[in-house]
Amino acid sequence: MSGLAAASRGAGASASSESPARMERIAHSTRRLLVYTVLLAFSLYIVGPFAAILVNAFGQGWFGGRWLPETWTLKWFRFARTVADLPTLMTNSLTIAGLAIAISLAVGIPTAWAMAKRRVRARALLMALILLPRMVPPITIALGVSREFYGFHLVDTHLGIALAHSILIIPLVVLIMSATFEGLDDRVLEAARVCGARWTHTSWYVIRPLVMPGLLAATLFGFVTSLNEFTLTLLTYGPRTVTLTVETYVQIGQGFTTIASALSAILLVPSLILLVLIQNHIKPENVVGGTKGI
Amino acid sequence: MRPNRSSLRVRRMLGRTRVVRLSTVTLLAPALAYLGVFFVYPIFVTLRTSLERTGASGYSFDNYRAILGSGYYWNVIGLTLLLAVATTLASIVVAVPLALVLRTHVRGHRFVRVLVLTPLLILALISALGLLIIWANTGWANKIIASIIGADIQVDYTIKGLIVFYTWLYAPYTILTTLSAVEAIDPAVEEAARVTGATPIQVLRRVTLPLSLRGVRAGSILTFLLAFEAFSIPLIAGGNHRPLAVVVYTEATVFNNFPKGSALAIVMAVIAVVVLVSYQALSTGRQRREGRT
Q1: Within 13 Å, how many C-alpha atoms sit on residue B5's CB side?
Q2: What is the pTM of this model?
Q3: Which of B244, B239, B222, B232 is nearest to B127 (CA)?
Q4: A10 assigned to some structural domain
Q5: How many Cβ atoms are within 10 Å of B152's Cβ, its own excluded?
Q6: Crossing angle (nearest 10°) for helices A138-152 and B258-292
Q7: Could you tell me if residue A153 is left (phi over 0), alpha (psi between -120 and 50 degrees) or otherwise beta?
Q8: CB A141 within 8 A of CB A167
Q9: Are A235 and A140 within one domain?
């Protein structure tokens, strides 16, 4: 559609202007140059840090203003595996993320259904309340959570950290799933009922396949949120529950930027997979309010 | 979406109201309970802690008095607001041209659209590390800048640097909403302006930019809030410049003064909520005015 618009714009400009076609061509190529300068500058600005991390993770002797390191090595990954105990970090991060997703979906999906399909009194207010945890500074929640968790003996447990992460994931699940459920046609559900399907059958054979993309989106966003969550983890973790994120912070704090880069390179992988999936399946504008960094 | 008429009739036949209302409450109950136990209660705990007195029993506003009476904390609040406002403005400067370019669907626009999303999905800590490396005094960014303007700029561990880093991280929110507003503009409107004799600059100033303002506004509030609440970036890349979240953290864990840290955290949350609510009030007021005209 916008290609059409561009074409008609070009036609309009050439019809209205009396300058020769050459001027038109110069103006056109100047515009192209400008457009690609903006795009290239932006791309470099965004990609630069990741490239730097990868170079730092695989390189050795990269200082003194060199463009690239002296030699390439896998040393920092080996250090990460032994010094930072990578397998344990991975297990911790994945266990916490899995638990957090399970909790968040179990708690969030019924609410999302109610918001989408039932008449809820003061619905806007309720939605604002559900999204509030993503608006209040995480550090304010984290201070209270850490105190509360000391009382419940939840500090330094996988479940405790997962419960803390869920505070931020549940709003995301409700946001994404209620949008998904709203897209469900009531007539389809009606048809299933009329045909004599029980509620369990309807939800498994009719609703589940239809809402799968939304469910996938919620799961992936939740997963990445948990994996990347920093503030809440920092105030609830302990020696038995060090995650990849916390260890990256510790390594940076101790000045081992190369090991931190190796850990970061590993942490980048799930985020990049998610990125590709999102680009292919979801409209990013729809979840802006829910995807808040740390 | 409301249930349609026939389903309502079915429910009415089944003697609906009680059953339906009960189950709606049941559906909402888990999330509300969770919110209560893991969000409202922790905030309450933070609030109660902030009223505790260090080394004495009972409650008082001593911590708040100490914070609001000290120039140091006012400077911290000022720095945090300065960073948030500067980041918001910088994000708008990045977002508007980028959205106008991406709208034309030039070759490679898909790739750039994916790039816009990356900062949202990647741990801020990693981004901060990468940004520190690339913006180091002898890093790539400074080498390129030096080859263009002949002198390198020092940004690591400065306020300037924090603004560059924050913008990298939080501009995507403004970019995405601006982009969706710009793409929603009916090309016929701009065409009409052009046909009636407006120059390209006039079309941009009088038609395109005003119509994309709503998107700019929606994204800037998110960018502002996130920059205001930023924690991990200034924690490792701020050097001596410590905004609110970092001061709260060091106060509570390094100096082990939980009451004072909590009081500061509450001040921070109040500022964030006040900004958000007044923004909402302003924008609904504006919408109402715009709707009337």
Answers
A1: 0
A2: 0.81
A3: B232
A4: yes
A5: 17
A6: 140
A7: left
A8: yes
A9: yes
Residue A293, in any domain of the structure: no
Q: What is the CATH number of the domain that holds A248?
A: 1.10.3720.10
B247 vs B269: CA distance, rounded Å = 14
**Mutation choice for B interface testing from A46, A55, A267 by most B CBs within 10 A:** A46
State how far the Cα of A142 lies from the Cα of A250, in Å rounded to an integer: 19
- Distance from C-alpha of B22 to C-alpha of B36, rounded to nearest angstrom: 20
Q: Cβ contacts of residue B90 below 8 Å, gap of 6+?
A: B163, B167, B171
Separation CA A79–CA A260 (nearest Å): 10
Report how far residue A201's alpha carbon sits from residue B161's, in angstroms, rounded to the nearest whole number: 57
Task: Answer with the one of A72, A87, A103 that is the final residue of a domain.
Answer: A72
Structure tokens at B258: 């939980």
Query: Tens digit of pLDDT for each residue in B45-87?
Result: 999 989 988 777 778 888 898 888 888 999 999 999 999 999 9
Q: In terms of domains, do A51 and A92 share one? A: no
pLDDT per position as a tens digit, A139-190: 999 999 998 888 888 888 999 999 999 999 999 899 888 888 888 888 888 8
Query: B125 vs A248: CB contact, 8 Å cut-off?
Result: yes
Same-domain pairing of A58 and A110 = no
Statement to judge: residues A155 and A102 lie in one domain: yes
CB atoms within 10 A of CB A190: 15
Tokens encoding A121: 């009194």
Mean pLDDT of A110-121: 87
Q: Which residue has the tokens 């029980």?
A: A198
**Apex CA A27: angle with CA A23 and CA A32, to 5°?**
145
DSSP A238: -
Chain A interface, best mutation among B2, B4, B38, B157, by max A CB count within 10 A:
B38
Nearest to A221 by CA among A291, A158, A289: A291
Q: Are residues A54 and A132 in the same domain?
A: no
Please identify which residue in the block is written with the tokens 């007021």.
B285
The amino acid sitting at A14 is S
In B12-35, which positions are buried (b, 16+ CB within 10 angstroms) versus exposed (e)?
eeeeeeeeeeeebeebbebbbebb
Comparing CB atoms, the residue among A43, A118, A164 nearest residue B115 is A43
Do A89 and A138 lie in one domain? The reply is yes
Give chain B's end-to-end CA distance (angstroms, integer): 30
- What letter represents residue A151's amino acid? G
Q: Give a yes or no: residue A175 inside a domain.
A: yes
Find chain B residues with C-beta within 8 A of A274's C-beta.
121
Q: Would residue A292 count as lying in a domain?
A: no
Q: Are residues A21 and A98 in the same domain?
A: no
Domain boundary among A72, A98, A118: A72
Range of the domain at A235: 75-287
Instruction: Count CB pairs under 8 A between chains A and B.
Output: 291
How far is the first Cα of chain A from the last one, in angstroms, to the nearest whole number?
37
A56 and A147 share a domain?
Answer: no
Q: How far apart are CA B227 and CA B245, in angstroms?
A: 10
Q: Which residues of chain B have pLDDT under 50?
A: 1, 15-21, 293
How many structural domains compose chain A? Answer: 2
